[in-house]
Model the fold of this input.
Amino acid sequence: MIVERFADWIDERLGTAHFVHHALRKAFPDHWSFMLGEINMYAFVILVATGTFLALFFDPNTSKTIYHGPYWLLDGQQMSHAYESTLYLSFVVNGGLLLRQIHHWTALIFLAGIVVHMARIFLTGAFRKPREINWVLGIALFGVSMFEGFCGYSLPDDLLSGTGLRIADSVALSVPVIGAWLSFLLLGGNFPSQQMIPRLFVAHIFILPAVIAGLITVHLAIVWRQKHSQFPGPLRTEDNVVGSPMFPVYAVKSLALLAVIVFVVCALGATTQINPIWLWGPYDPWKASSPAQPDWYVGWLEGALRIAPPWAWHPFGRTIPSVFWPTVLLPAIVFGFLLLWPWIERAITRDHRSHQLLDRPREVPWRTALGAALLTFGFALTAAGSDDVQARYLHVSIVDIVHFYQAFTLGGPLLAFVVAYAAASELREKGGVRKAHRVSLKRNTRGGFEEDSVP
Amino acid sequence: MNRRELAIAFALFLTVIGSGGFIAAYATGGNTLYEGLGLGGAALGLCLAALGWAFWILPAEQVVDEIVTYPSPHDQRVAADLAIERGIEKISRPRLLLAMLGGALACFGAALLVPLRSLGPKLGDTLFHTAWRNGSVVVRDDGTPVKVSDLEVDSALLVFPHDAVEDAASQVTLVRVTESEAPQTHGYIAYSRVCTHAGCPVALYRAPDRQLLCPCHQSLFNVLADGAVVSGPADRALPRLPLVVGDDGVLRATGDFSSPVGPGFWEETGG
Ligand code: FES
Done:
């Protein structure tokens, strides 16, 4: 057969037969939650493909032009070339709007997938030895991807993205000692500078994607090398991994996953408008719009900005503005905590063994409770990010709703911890009963079965 | 073909139809909805076919991989450690040269980092000053001067200095309150429009309360109390622009803001 002939041809040059055999028969554990990371891998592929198309039309130029194009509501308006080229690729380029919307939707799914994947890894203890490196790489991927998403969102130079950039600049400015220098280094001058969109463009289409691609490559290479972890089950031990073979079963399932993601983002891109920048209008630093929300993954920082108390601190007569605590210190603590978590947990449990078998979340109630608390914390901050809209719909004052979210952000995680702990403990009791009845059998020399003595 | 194979064939047929639909939509001018549904339908067909294939046609099989990759056997680890040790021993033979190598590499690295400096211009005092000076005429965004009779009480206006229209740092919100509330300037009061919280334009004037509202994080500033923060996350009053009304009825500034405008930063105070 032609494929085999090709494999032979390659093998005669590279000696790949052994690798190919092992790769094709590699075991992939069958559990839906193992697909979560894969979603992100495919989402990234879609992002690169659609993004490349968009980049060919986008013009990262902040100098002004007068718009004359098919979107007559903006006819005669002054705007940047960046904004105009985004209108152009949305309204004139065939397929442009579709790919732009697919790109944006996929980015949202990419980041959602990362968070859910992380939660899975956390709650099942998959970050434990020997997988700490991949946990750290995963956190790095999360951070870089958030940044990448924000850069992309900021490119079209519309009213919302410009406002977001202004806030981002104030975050850079708030850093003690080097803040002003940092802001100038990033923007190339006072906000709003001519260079900020070109720089974001280079970061968005070149630097950050390269970093993400590199991290994903190492992340996957390590998964490959270490093999998948697995939930406990028949035949499964601490030194093996049981699952479908890569080829053909797993490959076909994975193809189905890729196809369904493409289906979802195409359907969303076709039917559900996202970031219609022509409605926001071009960015002018003196214009404001309300309500204004960022993409969801930045929502927790937006919420933190809104509910943080107005505490400026003046050490040595200098200033640390209140923006510093929610947007620099808080993310630093959150990411630092996540990065160090495998070692923190080890310090608590004093468990230095390697783990191939995963915990079910209920089996370690305190870790599950902590995960629930962290997710609640993120949720509370994200919800606070749209407090003005909620205040309007609920007819309550903004001051009251800010107080509510301050309390929720602090109290909600505690409550979630207690509830999740109780629920997991309860489930563990019940699960324990079933576990006690599970026996493994082995064939004896007479051809019958007998209970295996489990070590 | 049995039932299952027929179902898969249908799914694959959907992919063919979807692809064709996409091409047709593209060729006839590019309707976003039809293009997307075509592509999506094609992908959906592929997904369904692959699922059918995986669960109906392929035999469910399990394989077991043993984990033998880590940690390496003892002798290999010893050999690796030894190789590292020997290498370090050899490379550090001429001690002095090794130290010099370290120094040279550090210098080279520093030299390579220097061009980063080109990314940002000198800070200077650009964060401390705006284009407002003594005598700057208060103008609208189309450049026309604002006269004392122009604004109704309880209204607000975006203004700039006459020689820096549309300069982001110099943008100002001019409001008019009653004569008695600001007697020297016929009721005109002007504040920097750049929020002291995170830099958004403080664009909304709530006339009944005499408050300026920033739409970004809802900081409220009191117009009658030198821009003091009423509520919200801003930690500093809005800088006020000193105004006079000339004999010609034109509004002018009598100087720059007394404090830096916009979001806070380290050097903002002291120094
Ligand atoms: S920027 Fe004005 S309240 Fe945050």
